[in-house]
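Narrative of accomplishments. A recurring question from our advisory board has been how the design workflow behaves on a single, concrete structure rather than in aggregate. To address it, we present the structure tokens for one chain from the evaluation set, followed by the sequence designed for it. No filtering or post-editing was applied between the two.
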């Protein structure tokens, strides 16, 4: 079997196949975690997910992180913590209340906090915060560290610098039999496309997948301030920018802002970010950085005396209907796809990799993949 793309999804797929005794080739145009996986925050979180399949799948995704950690596979890389949803005005408070109710209805451990309780738990937060909810049993993991660990654990040999240019198919049956790459043709009984933004060209889905840039900031260490935030702080506006709040539509505007302040275990803060549709490159700009900083200071005023160390950006691969593409590609026997995880692929990557591996092994994937079925799109158009 050949897997295209060594981001968290492709590497997870290869890991679970190899663990089941299947021989795999993992081809990667650049290097492992070179794209979105290496530019992510790392929230392994259900707090920001849209109610419905994404919320349910994220819960299963977190569970798998816990299982892999208990088995020792992700030992020292996955850490449990809470996410605090916060609101600074009436409109945000309403979004927060609705979303917290949706999380509770889907079985997530979430609790609305009184102001007193919030101040006791998170003294670094501004008095401007007027409503909050704690989402428990969330987690954090750094994407490129997960990738590195799974590669090492499975003894995977990533074929770096091998860009796949096209699929090779039997002209009579349409069955995919291999790949044309810059390093020559590769024959394959089965192919999994986990190429993030590169999947669109390979599958003829350029009208379905779009790049959504995110800009993030990293501060120096500020241990005292960091200790005053016991988990990630997620503004209710973030739910709107991500179209996760019930009723919110996927953002149509070019640039949306939604704030998450992540107190890292190093004592630093990771602060983001933007959602920018159809961005060509993962670069940052002063306008966005200034906007993010202003928003962050409103929630955590103590950040004013903390130095900004660097800014960076990445491209999330989003599907136009807001749900990923996971499963067999219709009309192309031998071909599976797993992509379009937008801002959720660190959380969902290992689970989706295991699901695809199970499908290829003829097993039950263990999660409901029907909402993510690629058959809903054909050659760039919504299926009739
Ligand atoms: C700023 C930002 C913040 C984020 N924060 C979070 C977060 O907090 N929590 C969360 O869960 N998710 C987050 N994400 C989303 C997450 O990073 C992605 O959903 C996830 O990394 C996608 O993984 P992937 O393996 O599908 O794709 P990628 O990591 O993009 O990997 C695809 C790989 O395929 C390779 N490739 C592409 N085309 C070809 C080709 N033709 N031939 C060979 N190889 C090819 C690429 O080089 C790349 O290495 C964030 C993303 C960004 C950008």
């Amino acid at each position: 079997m050949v897997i295209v793309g060594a981001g968290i999804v492709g590497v997870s797929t290869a890991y679970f196949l190899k663990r089941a005794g299947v021989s795999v080739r993992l081809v990667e145009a650049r290097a492992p975690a070179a794209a979105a996986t290496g530019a992510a925050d790392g929230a392994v979180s259900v707090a920001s997910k849209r109610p419905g399949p994404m919320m349910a799948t994220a819960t299963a995704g977190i569970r798998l992180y816990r299982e892999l950690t208990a088995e020792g596979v992700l030992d020292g890389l996955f850490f449990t913590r809470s996410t605090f949803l916060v609101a600074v005005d009436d409109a945000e408070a309403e979004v927060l209340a609705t979303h917290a109710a949706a999380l509770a209805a889907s079985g997530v451990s979430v609790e609305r906090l009184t102001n007193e309780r919030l101040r006791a738990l998170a003294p670094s937060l501004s008095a401007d915060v007027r409503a909050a909810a704690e989402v428990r049993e969330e987690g954090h993991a750094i994407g490129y560290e997960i990738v590195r660990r799974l590669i090492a654990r499975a003894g995977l040999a990533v074929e770096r610098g091998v860009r796949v240019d096209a699929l090779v198919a039997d002209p009579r049956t349409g069955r995919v039999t291999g790949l044309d790459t810059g390093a020559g043709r590769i024959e394959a009984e089965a192919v999994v496309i986990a190429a993030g933004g590169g999947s669109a060209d390979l599958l003829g889905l350029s009208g379905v997948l779009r790049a959504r840039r995110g800009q993030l900031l990293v501060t120096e260490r500020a241990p005292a301030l960091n200790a005053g935030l016991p988990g990630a702080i997620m503004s209710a506006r973030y739910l709107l920018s991500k179209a996760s709040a019930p009723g919110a539509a996927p953002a149509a505007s070019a640039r949306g802002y939604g704030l998450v302040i992540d107190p890292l275990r190093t004592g630093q803060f990771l602060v983001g970010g933007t959602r920018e549709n159809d961005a060509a490159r993962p670069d940052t700009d002063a306008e966005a950085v200034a906007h993010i900083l202003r928003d962050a200071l409103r929630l955590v005023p103590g950040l004013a005396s903390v130095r900004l160390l660097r800014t960076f950006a990445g491209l999330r691969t989003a599907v136009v209907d807001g749900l990923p593409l996971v499963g067999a590609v219709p009309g192309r026997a031998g071909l599976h796809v797993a992509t379009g995880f937008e801002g959720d692929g660190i959380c969902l990557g290992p689970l989706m990799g295991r699901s695809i591996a199970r499908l290829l092994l003829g097993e039950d994937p263990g999660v409901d993949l029907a909402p993510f079925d690629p058959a809903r799109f054909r050659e760039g158009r919504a299926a009739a």
